[in-house]
Amino acid sequence: LTPVALTIAGSDPSGGAGLQADLKTFHQHRVYGAAVVSLITVQNSRGVQSVQPLEGKSVGAQLDAVLDDLPVHAVKTGALGDAEIVEAVARRLRECSAPLVIDPVLCSTSGQTLLDERARELLVRELLPVAFLVTPNLDEAALLAGHAVVDPASMEGAAARIADHGVPHVLIKGGHLDGRPIDVLWSEGRIRHIEGERVDTPHGHGTGCVLSAAVTAGLALGVEVEEAVQRAVAFVRRGLRGAPGLGQGRGPLDLFATP
Ligand code: PXL
Known about the structure:
Elements: E1 4-11, H1 18-28, E2 32-44, E3 47-53, H2 56-67, E4 74-77, H3 83-93, E5 100-102, H4 117-127, E6 133-134, H5 138-145, H6 152-163, E7 169-172, E8 182-187, E9 190-195, H7 207-220, H8 225-241
Parallel strand pairs: 1-2, 1-4, 4-5, 5-6, 6-7
Antiparallel strand pairs: 2-3, 7-8, 8-9
The structure holds 3-hydroxy-5-(hydroxymethyl)-2-methylisonicotinaldehyde.
The site of 3-hydroxy-5-(hydroxymethyl)-2-methylisonicotinaldehyde (PXL) has 14 residues, from strand 1, strand 2 and helix 7.
């Protein structure tokens, strides 16, 4: 049986983030990848120039086409664009029994807001309750929890608050902490710290996309959540270490890394 994972995400034409990174990550895990496009970005390693959401009904129709046909074993969402798209996605994923990983792309690493407040509220109200795992960075965790998230203690508090929205597993990514990166995984009330390693590189475009895609691939393969998260963190670390240095700016990870 071929495992299948589906991403619902934005397009990054430079190939290092968004649905392109998700598909490459699925592929490296020997998981067949399907992709529903939510929005089109114009960007490269130097930065994002524009973001254009598709119509909600187009995203919904793509999703119907895939879910009506393929046996999907795990789903992830990345950048969703606007409230109409969040609504269209939530309506369909409520009926889908595969585990859902939400990468709540609310603000970019550079601090840019990527989902407005109304869409964010819908994501919290409609999508978190049907999710299996949500993977915010520190800024996104602060927005979702409603308080500052700056260290492992506040990460633990935020994870509990976010879990109150009805999602059993919460992974708060500590890549933006000062010093050693520590990710905090809340799993049905159990807290676990995943100690990472700071990789000294100017690259890292798409890091969050690759992490959540790698977890999704693990779930599609039937790996249990804590193990899938740990393997994904290691996959990202290898990706950062082997970053090929493509582009003039902040380049992609090594997406030929093996899981
Ligand atoms: O990592 C956030 C993100 C998500 N989705 C798309 C992106 C980015 C960041 O560049 O381009 C399409």
